[in-house]
């Protein structure tokens, strides 16, 4: 088992909060050695205190003995009053600061002081006890990494969903919702667990318990990819529903459809079926850490197993049946095995086929996703 360390720290933006008084916190996406990604919130005063302690721990690298030996980057002290303009302009400095820290020798970049500072705290998972009149405002940095004032977005608008049934949380990191509750989705994980917030609560909720408010087609799943992506099962699963597939641990399979609810359609030979994405890992990647995550949260329930689900939409989105998946998959495999016919091909023809747009396949387009 390897040591715990941080691979990368990315500044996402900042949040303006109003309780107990107006202040700003910075949002960091921290990628750990097990490839897990956590969002944490830190005040600049906390960051500066962290910086001072780091200098005390490494006086030589901080240039306290000889200035020419300094490798720990500089960080300006907090101002007496930090307004929004200061919070915006400081983002470039923080990005450079943590990029520099992560490039330092491991005794600094992997020291317990740094790891403990970025560990997830209870406050990172729960919104402050804010009034309903003044909610926190979130500002994101531009995707190109520039941090000029002109690059800052306005407060982001999160996607809003409604709970179709009651869900009782199973751990401290999850969130209980009741039928009809409206939540904002902060993060959509491929595992089928979505990180949501509602009033003063935050936590993980199964995507199968949520539906978009506007229309059932709002959160469109990607199209099937019958070329398939190679994955390995990291946990055995015995099929419960007829359209699921049973697999043992360590089996090599192909994923042909990644659905947002965390139940992917996989192919093993000519057999296709639903399988929990949490029990899959890309072929060739380390599986130890992924297996550890399974113990903290298992596969989310499928929507078809939720009793008394109440949709607000008159129609619900139809999904391809396993019969359709199987027929399309068999046709694709047959066409792939055939010898290539001589003749001119357009430059894009290969790319189109890789995306599943093969002649004779059913339900290939996003508008024709229902049963055929």
From TrEMBL:
Cellular compartments annotated: Cytoplasm
Q: What is the lineage of its organism?
A: Eukaryota, Metazoa, Chordata, Craniata, Vertebrata
The Gene Ontology biological process annotation of the record reads: reactive oxygen species biosynthetic process; respiratory burst
Q: Which UniProt keywords apply?
A: Cytoplasm, Phosphoprotein, Repeat, SH3 domain
Report domain PX positions. 4-125
Q: Which GO terms describe its cellular component?
A: cytoplasm; membrane
UniProt GO MF annotations:
phosphatidylinositol binding; superoxide-generating NADPH oxidase activator activity
Q: Where is this region: Disordered?
A: 290-372
User: What's the protein called, per UniProt?
Assistant: Neutrophil cytosolic factor 1
Q: Which InterPro entries match?
A: NADPH_Oxidase/PX-Domain, NCF1_PBR/AIR, NCF1_SH3_1, NCF1_SH3_2, P47PHOX, PX_dom, PX_dom_sf, PX_p47phox
Question: Which source organism?
Answer: Rattus norvegicus
Under the heading PROSITE patterns, the entry gives:
PX, SH3
Domain (SH3) ranges: 156-215, 226-285
Question: Where is this protein chiefly located?
Answer: cytoplasm
Q: Which gene encodes it?
A: Ncf1
Q: Which SUPFAM superfamilies does the UniProt record give?
A: PX domain, SH3-domain
Instruction: Report the protein's function.
Output: Subunit of the phagocyte NADPH oxidase complex that mediates the transfer of electrons from cytosolic NADPH to O2 to produce the superoxide anion (O2(-)). In the activated complex, electrons are first transferred from NADPH to flavin adenine dinucleotide (FAD) and subsequently transferred via two heme molecules to molecular oxygen, producing superoxide through an outer-sphere reaction.
Where are stretches of biased composition, namely Gly residues? Answer: 361-372
Does the keyword Repeat belong to this entry?
Answer: yes
What the entry lists under Gene3D superfamilies is as follows: Phox-like domain, SH3 Domains
